Amino acid sequence: MQQFEKKELKKKSENISDWYTDVVLKAELADYAPVKGTMVIRPYGYAIWERVQEILNRMMRTKGVQNAYFPLFIPSSLLEKEKQHVKGFSPELAIVTIAGGEKLVDPLVVRPTSETIMYAMYAKWIHSWRDLPLLINQWNNAVRWEKRSYLFLRTTEFLWQEGHTAHETEGEAIDMVLAALEWYQNTYQEFFAVPVISGRKSTSEKFAGGKETYAIEALMPDGKALQAATSHNLGQNFSKPFVVSFQNREGKIEYVWQTSWGFSTRALGGLFLVHGDDHGLILPPKMAPFQVVIIPIFKKGLEQSDLITYGQLLAEDLEAKGIRVMFDKGDNQSAGRKFNAWEVKGVPLRIEIGEREMHDKTVTLVKRIDGEKFTIARAQLGQEILQLLDSIQQELFQKALEFLKSNIREANSYDEFKAIMQSKRGFIKAFWCESAECEAKIKTETKATTRCLPLDAAEEKGECIYCKKEAHHRWFFAQAY
RNA sequence: CGGAGAGUGGCGCAAUUGGCUAGCGCGCAUCGUUUGGGACGAUGAGGUUCCGGGUUCAAGUCCCGGCUCUCCGACCA
């Protein structure tokens, strides 16, 4: 019995954070690396990141954003040009002080984000309004020396895309900021099947050096919120110190209006946490590296090669329909072991083929989401699977949406607020006067921070939940990841 | 950076008051039998017990110093 238990996954229903770590390791998404806080993203996990790249690249192309690559090292003198920016990042910088065996006069910062190095270049490239807008994205890594790390959700080194644009007018820049936010929201909702709240950040939560920050916030099963991606309106805060200026249509010198926005591997953590159950991961079909796994069941007296041919043709048919298929045809693992392995990895559909199916020209189909098992004729399989994948995608989103909806609560008094934080957590909508003092006190006393003010939040009259002074909006609060 | 815990084959663990050739399960390799929910048998490989120093006839075990990891807090995408 004991040996059996060791094979089991930790239960999501019992302890979500143990489950999460366990499932990330066992599904072979990632593994711990030798340096504290770093991880290896393994092929299965990286395939999911590549899906994200495809999705976001496609979205970025619609607006003409181009990919490029800027260096990893930033001279510290450059980083220091924008005061709020250095101040915000300095506690978590990794700095190279010795290189080539010599002490560096100007140490090199390993990028925590690339505003400074990119804008030093933008200053060189932008001279006229005709050079605008400049729309560049890069897929890269960044390093922030986190004191406490967590697979995917907070690693010392992480992967992301960072988009950096420069515009002629602030209006254009704001359009860009909101467009990026919408891309992120779509990625999360339509592809990850995770509903989000998108909105503006408070002053204390905004990007160091920026003017306004917008974010998408997703609710995790433990009632904590995950800031899944951000989009910043930088105003002219960087263009001034970096002298990114241009001659406008009237011939006058002006500073550009800038934006930056990023979507990191952290977002994958949210994807893994939200879906999934005691048996492991559940990947939404649109993100799954394999949407279908075909498992042959060999039997004595059954010609193995016949079954493999049957499976091979099946796989080719499905692939021709654009379905991502894994045919796990090896004969050195029992079928049961394969079932379990692919369940942990969250493949949405499993096809079992054996003697019966081959004889009847059918397949046995099993849904990961609920374990439902049925037999269908091979002839209709492709169509059936496309429909199933679609309905599973919807079902996952609906489930997550219901969870989100039932975990958004209004608090009209501070007592009510505290009571919610002590029990179910989730999002709390409450009036707040927008003073940093109240925000800080609420955080210390309840762990909840302001998450955002939704874009469509109505202007209302109320009193701050903490100080009872006048307030105009109900902000979203939650304990953050 | 504070608090707690832990470092023993790849992984999970064991090793009596300090005592014999450091064990067990999983995994791995070879061969055979198997395969409809984590198969079985036989054989085999694999160890500087985190590092450095000390005490002792004798150290995985005790002492000192260091390092690393995990969890919990403050900081953060």
TrEMBL record:
It holds the Pfam family HGTP_anticodon. Keywords: Aminoacyl-tRNA synthetase, ATP-binding, Cytoplasm, Ligase, Nucleotide-binding, Protein biosynthesis. GO terms for biological process: prolyl-tRNA aminoacylation. Residues 37-284 form the Aminoacyl-transfer RNA synthetases class-II family profile domain. GO terms for cellular component: aminoacyl-tRNA synthetase multienzyme complex; cytoplasm. It catalyses: tRNA(Pro) + L-proline + ATP = L-prolyl-tRNA(Pro) + AMP + diphosphate. Its EC number is 6.1.1.15. It is found in: Cytoplasm. Its main location: cytoplasm. GO terms for molecular function: ATP binding; proline-tRNA ligase activity. Catalyzes the attachment of proline to tRNA(Pro) in a two-step reaction: proline is first activated by ATP to form Pro-AMP and then transferred to the acceptor end of tRNA(Pro). Belongs to the class-II aminoacyl-tRNA synthetase family. ProS type 3 subfamily. Homodimer. Consists of three domains: the N-terminal catalytic domain, the anticodon-binding domain and the C-terminal extension. This is Proline--tRNA ligase. It comes from Candidatus Gottesmanbacteria bacterium GW2011_GWA1_43_11.
